[in-house]
Each structure stands twice: as structure tokens, then as C-alpha cells.
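Predict the 3D structure for this chain.
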Amino acid sequence: MKTNCNPLAAELAKKILSLLPGGNCSGFGGCGHATCEDCALAMAEAKDPALCPACDQQAVDAVAEVLEVPSVEVKETVAFVACAGHAAGKARFASCKSCSEAKDMGFVRGECKSGCLGVGSCVEVCKFDAMKVENGTIVIDKEKCNGCGACANAAVCPQHVITMVPKDATNFIPCSSTEEDDDLVRKTCGFGCIACGECERACPEGAVKIVDNHAVIDYDKCVGCVACTVKCRKKIIVDTLHDLTALKSNVAFVRCSGDGRASAKYKEMGIQTCQEAAKLDAKALGLCATGCLGQGACSAVCRYDAIKVVDGIAYVDPDKCVGCKDCTYACPKGLITIVPYKGMKMVPCSSNDAIDDKAAVCSSGCIFCEDCKSNCPNLAIYSEGTHTVIDPEICEDCQVCQYMCPKGVIKQQVVPEYIFLQREALGIQEGE
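Done. Predicted structure below.
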């Protein structure tokens, strides 16, 4: 504490100091002072009861009483890490002593240059045991965090991914990517914002903006509705009030219902990934050249446990799927497509091989008899090579195609109607 300060201010500072959290943020805290003693003196001299961001309403009221000034309303904040992925090289940086050291090492191709480095410099400066590192991910205990802001200091977090948000906030965007190429973002990180702007356009309060190629929430305007969550193409916006898995407009569909022999063959050969399997000559192995490889590249990237490999074939659970498209990018065969969020018929086969060749490698493929196509009353079914495709925009779900298909290949995509929260957020009226 300054020795040449006003004696009255010094006396008040001693009383104020006893009311502060006492973490001594080592100059990193949001008050801008090196120690709690210096902060207390500054509060006394400026008659500012809310200079320390770590003070809750009760503490601010008490300090105001000491200073004999009106109290002010406190907007309690907590730290939030605007990054939910591991694409910034966390595994490679694990041996670094600080996040600054990790950043100085630089990034390699395929790593996110804007993400959390995962070393944990923020954890070291937190004096309230509110942060920890779990498998390279920074975990914040909201109950212990008092919003001091030390972790968000630029000297602590060189990536600037930690921000202070209102303690009562319910919507969060866990991404700080500045990458302009949305395809590169998808390939780099499943949690990356692609800056499509759908959230910004959907927000009724103008609380969401695209800044440096990622979405940012202005919490002074945000009212906690679900509009941004519903419209987010990647479904990365965290909504702690509502069931995110139910909020979507599209779901994924796997265009293969094979018998699993490809997956079994690749496992027998010691192949462990879809990417490895895709490089092999499937026909030479007596397998379907366009079918599901069954090694789970799609399920590995799914954050909602919505796609799994069952008996060697990938299947989507439409109730869990949020239509984020991550699985479509992960599949090296391009078998997964996104379909509208409503009940419909789909043909889970994409093979263009001759009918006899199909039969030799798969017991459940489309035999291209065209009975479904010729009997569809809406002309919703058309041909692509030697397999049929149903146009979901024209299909009226009459079930004639399923009745006519001699192989029972056509599957019904059963998805529930829009839920109440979606209707409310998007302005959809009952019956639309």
C-alpha cells in the first residue's frame, strides 16, 4: 500500500480490504491493480465500491457503507472459455510450461490458430480453485468462480479465448476461430463456428453478431431465447436451459443399409479407420465399392451420440441428430446426406453397379427394378445410375413405394414434428 496516501483513505482501505475476496490476483485481475491492498486504497480514494470485479452484491453493499456512498448494482460474471475443441494442438503442447510458450512454438497444418492451447496458465493464476485441466480441456466451476478476471488477462491467455460472461447467462458460443474458409473450419474442428450468420439473422434482439469470422453474443441484449440455437447450422451454440438435441431443422441419413460384410472384412485385415479402408480396392476384395465402410469415422465426430455403427453399418438416431453435418464431412465415401426434419421415405443405397454385381456383394441393395418409380403418384422418385432416389421435397409419404419395393429396401425416416420451443423461436404457427 502507498505510504504517502491520505491517512483517511488509508484507514478506509484497511476496512475495505477485510471485505474483499482476498485472492491477490498478482496484477492479472480486472481491477487493474497489483494487489488487493492497492485495490482497496483505490476504492477508498475514488469512492468506488464496485472496483473489484470479484465482489458480490453483499460485499459491494458493505464497501459502500464503509465509504458512505450509495451502493451500485452488481452484474456478477464468471469466466467462459470460447473454445470447445482440441484442434489447436493441445496434445502437441502438453509438455509446455505455459500457454505463451505453446503459442511461441507455432501451429502446424490442420491445427486451429485461434483455439485454446490447453496448457493451463489460467488455472495457475486462479486463486479460488475455480479452474482445472481435464484431458486438455479447461473446466470452470461456476460456483467457485467469482469473476475476478485474472484468467482472461491477455498476459495469461495469449489466445484471448477466455471472456467474462454474466453468471446468469444461458447461451454460449464456444468458438473463437478467425478462419474465413468454412470448409477448413469443418475439417479442423467439429465445434468450429463457420460464420454462416444464421444466428445473427435469427436473433430477435440483435444480440448476436459475426466478429472476426465467429459469432459473438452481446449479453446486454441477449434475453436467453432459443432462436440462435435453433438456427445454428453447426449446432455448436450451448443452451443450458433447453434440450439442444431436440432443436434442429435437418437430420443426417446414411445412404447404405448393407449387410456389414465390408466392415467385417476390413476388421479381419486389421483396418481401423474409414480413411484407411477407403484407399483399398473394394471390388478386388469382393465388396461393394460405394457402401458403408463400417469403421466409425462418422460416430467418432458426432457430439450427440446420434450415429453409431451397428452390425457393420452406420445408423442415425433422428431423435438425437441435430443436423450439424459433421458426419457428412467425416465419411470418406460421401454416403451421409442431410434431409429435412420431417417424416419421409429414403432409399439407403447409392450403388451404380450392374444388378448382378450388386447382388454378389450385398443382400440389401437397390436392384433397380423401378417398381417404386413407376408407381409413385407424385413423381417424387427418380434414377441416379442404377439406384433410385426419393426427392423429400416432393414426397407426400403415401407409402406406395414401400409397398411396391420387392426387396424392402425403402426405409421410412420417422422424425417428430417441430416442438413447442422451435415454433416459439421461429414464429411457426400450429399446423404450418
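The chain has a mean pLDDT of 88.
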